[in-house]
Structure prediction request, 160 residues.
Amino acid sequence: MSSTSAPLKAFIHRGPFNETSRTHPVLAFLEKYVAMVDSCDYSGPSTRWYSEKASFFNQDKTVYADGPAIWKWMGGSLFGGFEKMSGELVQVTVVELEEGKRYMLFVDELTTFWIKGKGPVTVPRVLQFTTGLAENGEGEGGWQHVGECRVWWNPSLLHA
Prediction:
């Protein structure tokens, strides 16, 4: 028995965010998300960025199972020891899973972490996001939220 399905739509954005990337809703959302993460300010609600039912799979095999838990971890043990961060986007591959509703993003970036009392360290990271329409009108601009995130990086490089 064979099945047919429509081919996936995908595109690649290389380099920093720019006027062209800002015209696509999912890349505009990602740019705002990266700026929020770089600011190290997690004082707002988790539902601006993460679905209540979100999952975050860390490289150490720990899974954070809802938006508020992810937010608490990000503002605490994950990024709490940094004065600031700066993500330099290398490439994003965007795959449309449901037309105009759900996307998967594969993000390659170099992230510079300013460690409190030590200075900057740059580490390569790869992230995979599934994002889509926000529930209950929440999300960034009422449109996007992260439903699932996976990250691969070597945090021991921060202490080398």
Observations:
- The first strand starts at residue 9 and ends at 14.
- The chain has a mean pLDDT of 89.
- Strands lie at 9-14, 50-57, 63-64, 82-98, 102-115, 119-133, 144-152.
- DSSP finds two helices and seven strands in the chain.
